[in-house]
């Protein structure tokens, strides 16, 4: 097909970011000719049938976004990973390969980017280490059988980008290699990048052309948050709905990685919303700490807007939870308000069987500050929780969920080798896991794992294989990629590890990669926990990755001191 490029028209964005849970907004103008749109992994098929259906839900609107962006003069790069053979003869692929090599290619631009420095203190919000597939078992089996019947591998069935997106053979590019994408951006003098596609918690964040890599390389980058999806199973921690899982990942991105926008800022109308996402929206106007506690309880059943200032979310809620005075720009006259001050003051006159009092201590309703605003206590949080259901016509649940509840059903964060708080459960076994990123330059000599803090009897698994010794050879490690390290501790440790001899990976030249820090721990003795069921990069979180870099090097007692020229 051919396209006539019309006069360039700039993009007017309202960028959303976060400080803890409070949202902030910033208006920016991006010149269209300096803006690139990267379409991540919008494949024709996927091993998850639910993922396919969700992609089909927003793909038509995404095609409209790309068409409008293209007509304004923006550059469109289609990046369906693993599908370059299909497009070998396509004009958009040949155009990408014909671009001159950039002289300023960033280091490791062709590799996955699993974490950026800003995420060092972040706690990753969901457990995706099982791949995040949320299919019904029977539906998944039928889907796998269908994929086999059409000659596709049920595990990796993608061969091309979905036909629902237009690739303009006159001006678009097809490239999924980080260095090739970088060449295009530099050749077209693209300063700013918009990421769209799937899946945000895996490929959109981590691919060589993804959000982290673009930010690390110095581009201004944003995510179009309604033109994406995540791989997350509600049966995994934190046990929220799939759509709440999307919200949690987007909040992580907005706080630690980059701002986000929505599709209506390009084509008008309303932001996209998945058909099955029927949650009511609660706008919370409260101090950040209290808003965080309230959102934690409501997130499973409601969409949450924590209102920190004027912005597009301000008047886009079904009801509001208010502690402080509403903002001047808020138009809440036509919507219900959960305002606890009057509720608490009148608590004595409410009948004890009123739905909003379910699960509360009826004798302790009055919890007000001197200025009349409520203190967010167990009672007031439960009243707010109940009121949101009641005001939206839903039955009030018997129990109030919490996002931070801990149990042995999921992996929790622990610090190694520092002292650990004793867990209430008692067990004869625990599993600990971390991810190591080891450089190619360490490939020539055997490496030694120092794991004394876990005890001599601990079993050590590397990428799912039990190690016969603590010495690792080249054929056992993936160099330049993530390696999954799992430690099986037996003998009533009750979640404890020793404080001496920090864990580390040692090179014979005297350098060492420190493995101290935040590991993930799980109580129990399930042998299936020895490995990720998917390649580690797809399940990697920011909580347990140990990278070889200058700040990670530690002295090795009795060996040669660290060299100053260590590889980053």
List keywords for this structure.
568 residues; alpha/beta; Rossmann fold; Jelly Rolls; 3 domains; 7-stranded mixed β-sheet; 6-stranded parallel β-sheet; disordered C terminus
Quick summary:
By secondary structure, the chain is α/β, with parallel strands linked by helices. The chain is built from 12 helices and 23 strands.
Task: Summarize the SSE layout with pairings.
Elements: E1 11-19, E2 22-30, E3 35-40, H1 49-72, E4 75-79, H2 91-98, H3 137-149, E5 173-174, H4 178-187, E6 192-197, H5 200-206, H6 211-216, E7 220-228, H7 242-256, E8 260-261, H8 264-267, E9 280-285, H9 288-298, E10 302-306, E11 319-322, E12 337-339, H10 340-345, H11 378-391, E13 412-416, E14 429-437, E15 447-450, E16 459-462, E17 465-466, E18 471-472, E19 482-490, E20 504-506, E21 512-514, E22 517-523, H12 536-539, E23 545-547
Parallel strand pairs: 3-4, 3-6, 4-5, 6-7, 7-8, 9-10, 9-11, 11-12, 14-23
Antiparallel strand pairs: 1-2, 13-22, 14-19, 14-22, 15-18, 15-20, 16-17, 16-19, 20-21
Helix pairs in contact: 9-11
Structure commentary:
The protein has 568 residues and is of the alpha/beta class. It has three domains: 35-116 and 126-267, Isochorismatase-like (Rossmann fold, 3-Layer(aba) Sandwich); 280-391; 412-552, Jelly Rolls. The chain contains twelve helices and 23 strands. It has helices at residues 49-72, 91-98, 137-149, 178-187, 200-206, 211-216, 242-256, 264-267, 288-298, 340-345, 378-391, 536-539, and strands at 11-19, 22-30, 35-40, 75-79, 173-174, 192-197, 220-228, 260-261, 280-285, 302-306, 319-322, 337-339, 412-416, 429-437, 447-450, 459-462, 465-466, 471-472, 482-490, 504-506, 512-514, 517-523, 545-547. The strands form five sheets. Strands 13, 14, 16, 17, 19, 22 and 23 form a seven-stranded mixed sheet that branches. It has a six-stranded parallel sheet with strand order 5-4-3-6-7-8, with helices on both faces. α7 (242-256) links the parallel β7 and β8 (260-261). α9 (288-298) packs across α11 (378-391). The longest helix is centred in the first third of the chain and has 24 residues, at 49-72. The two termini are 46 Å apart. The model is unreliable at 1-7, 340-350, 362-368, 421-426 and 555-568 (pLDDT under 50).
């Amino acid at each position: 097909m051919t396209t006539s490029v019309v006069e360039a028209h700039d993009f007017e964005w309202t960028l959303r970011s976060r400080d803890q849970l409070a949202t902030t907004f910033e208006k920016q103008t991006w010149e269209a000719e300096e803006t690139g749109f990267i379409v991540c992994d919008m494949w024709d098929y996927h091993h998850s049938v639910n993922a396919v259906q969700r992609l089909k839900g927003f793909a038509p609107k995404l095609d409209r976004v790309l068409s409008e962006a293209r007509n304004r003069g923006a550059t469109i790069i289609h990046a369906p990973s693993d599908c370059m053979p299909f497009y070998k003869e396509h004009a958009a692929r040949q155009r990408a390969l014909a671009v001159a090599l950039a002289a300023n290619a960033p280091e490791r631009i062709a590799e996955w980017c699993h974490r950026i420095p800003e995420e060092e203190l972040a706690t990753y919000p969901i457990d995706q280490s099982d791949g995040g597939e949320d299919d019904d078992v029977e539906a998944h089996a039928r889907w796998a059988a269908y994929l086999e019947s059409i000659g596709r591998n049920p595990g990796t069935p993608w061969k091309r980008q979905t036909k629902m997106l237009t690739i303009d053979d006159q001006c678009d590019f097809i490239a999924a290699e980080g260095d090739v994408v970088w060449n295009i951006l530099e050749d077209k003098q693209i300063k700013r990048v918009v990421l769209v596609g799937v899946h945000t918690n895996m490929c959109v964040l981590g691919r060589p052309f993804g959000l982290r890599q673009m930010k690390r390389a110095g581009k201004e980058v944003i995510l179009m948050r309604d033109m994406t999806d995540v791989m997350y199973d509600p049966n995994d921690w934190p046990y929220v709905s799939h759509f709440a899982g999307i919200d949690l990942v987007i909040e992580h991105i907005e706080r630690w990685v980059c701002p986000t926008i929505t599709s209506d800022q390009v084509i008008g109308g309303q932001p996209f919303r998945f058909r099955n996402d029927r949650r009511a929206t609660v706008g919370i106007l409260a101090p950040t700490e209290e808003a965080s506690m309230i959102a934690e309880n409501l997130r499973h059943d409601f969409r949450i807007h924590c209102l920190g200032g004027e912005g597009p979310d301000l008047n886009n809620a079904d009801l509001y939870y208010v502690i402080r005075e509403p903002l001047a720009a808020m138009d809440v006259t036509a919507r219900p308000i959960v305002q606890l001050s009057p509720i608490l003051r009148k608590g004595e006159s409410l009948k004890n069987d009123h739905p909003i009092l379910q699960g509360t201590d009826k004798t302790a309703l009055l919890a007000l500050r001197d200025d009349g605003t409520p203190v967010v206590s167990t009672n007031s949080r439960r009243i707010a929780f109940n009121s949101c259901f009641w005001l939206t016509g839903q039955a009030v649940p018997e129990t109030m969920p919490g996002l931070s509840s801990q149990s042995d059903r999921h992996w929790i964060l622990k610090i190694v080798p520092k002292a650990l708080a004793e867990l209430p459960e008692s067990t004869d076994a625990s599993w600990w896991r971390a991810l190591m990123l080891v450089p190619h330059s360490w490939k020539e000599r055997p490496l030694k794992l120092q794991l004394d803090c876990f005890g001599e009897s601990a079993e050590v698994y590397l990428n799912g294989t039990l190690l016969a010794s603590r010495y690792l050879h080249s054929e056992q490690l993936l160099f330049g990629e993530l390696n999954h390290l799992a430690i099986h501790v037996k003998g009533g440790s009750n979640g404890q590890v020793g404080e001496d001899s920090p864990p580390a990976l040692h090179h014979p030249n005297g350098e060492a990669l420190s493995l101290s820090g935040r590991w993930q721990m799980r109580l129990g003795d399930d042998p299936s926990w020895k490995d990720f069921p998917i390649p580690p990069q797809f399940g990697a979180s920011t909580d347990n990755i140990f990278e070889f870099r200058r700040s990670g090097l530690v002295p090795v007692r009795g060996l040669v001191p660290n060299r100053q020229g260590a590889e980053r």
